[in-house]
Amino acid sequence: MAPPPTSMDVLIAAPRGFCAGVDRAIRIVELAIEKYGAPVYVRHEIVHNRFVVDNLTAKGAIFVEELDEVQDGVAVVFSAHGVPKIVPQKAAERGLDYVDATCPLVSKVHRQAERLVEAGKHILFIGHAGHPEVIGTFGQVPPGGMTLVETVADAETVTADDPANLAFLTQTTLSVDDTAETIRVLQRRFPAIQGPRGEDICYATSNRQAAVKAISGECDAVIVIGAPNSSNSLRLVEVAEREGVKAMLIQRADDVDFAWLDGVRTLGVTAGASAPEVLVRELIDHLASRFAITEREFAGVTESMVFKLPRSLATA
């Protein structure tokens, strides 16, 4: 007779998963396909999640990295992470129908960058080199208008030609705690530095990190569902580890290493802002094949943010 399955409490973080910007971006691709017909090109992954990208590919989206890969006469969507100014300019020059799915909260940072540079400020931009959001934001201002600051160590060593005319902005998907520490260093070193009017780190990033902090004290381990190139998902892993809990990033349930779960009696589960709820349910079902699951949801902040669709697609 087989032994009874090991029991496991699964504490599911809330909020988790899709944010308003991701919902909007995915819907934009779907509506663009309805309006223009397949194929519709998408410059870069619309959001960083393979499941989402594969689903949209099946509906008629073609994902490329550069505008040069887009055929003439075919519609193109720009990803939620934002693009440099030159990209829509080139699309217009080619006569392409394009739709910008940049998250409105990223667009807000773009406009702030433009205004600050126009006012004569040099911007210290806190973010991760090579991330498409960072590339897009740097592409809003003339070359040399911004300097990247990735770490607290960078903040301690970065130099400025005119310390009296400095400002800082941040990527929207950073660690709340790390970014706060980096900003404190910049403000100590450059007392005149000007900050953004409001918090640049988006509400969804902040809320998901807070939820992981809240459940970590009750958990032996935390699993984060997200992509390895998803900044906000990687930050959730770091938050759990900083709280003293071992954490694992997975893309799908099959990625779970059951040996890693040896001795885990309470497991925390969350999903990055680009990961759909169906992947959370898939993980719970997968765990239930091995453990006797008791499922609980953490009662966190309720999110009600909704972003309007572009006018060109609002009636599609």
Properties at a glance:
316 residues; alpha/beta; Cobalt-precorrin-4 Transmethylase, domain 1; Rossmann fold; 3 domains; five-stranded parallel β-sheet; four-stranded parallel β-sheet
Q: What does this protein look like?
A:
The chain is α/β, with parallel strands linked by helices and 316 residues long. The chain folds into 3 domains: 6-18 and 203-297, 3-Layer(aba) Sandwich (Cobalt-precorrin-4 Transmethylase, domain 1); 20-103, Rossmann fold; 107-189, 4-hydroxy-3-methylbut-2-enyl diphosphate reductase, catalytic domain (Cobalt-precorrin-4 Transmethylase, domain 1, 3-Layer(aba) Sandwich). Helix content is 38%, strand content 18%. The chain has 11 helices and 12 strands. The protein has helices at 20-36, 50-59, 86-93, 104-118, 132-138, 152-157, 176-189, 203-216, 231-242, 277-288, 311-314, and strands spanning 6-12, 40-43, 61-64, 76-78, 98-100, 122-126, 146-149, 166-170, 221-225, 246-250, 266-271, 291-297. The strands form 3 sheets. The protein has a 5-stranded parallel β-sheet, sandwiched between helices. A 4-stranded parallel β-sheet has the order 3-2-4-5, with helices on both faces. Helix 9 (231-242) links the parallel strand 9 (221-225) and strand 10. Helix 4 packs parallel to helix 5 (132-138). It is flat and about 70 Å long. It starts with 5 loop residues before the first strand and ends with a helix. The model has no long low-confidence stretch (mean pLDDT 95).
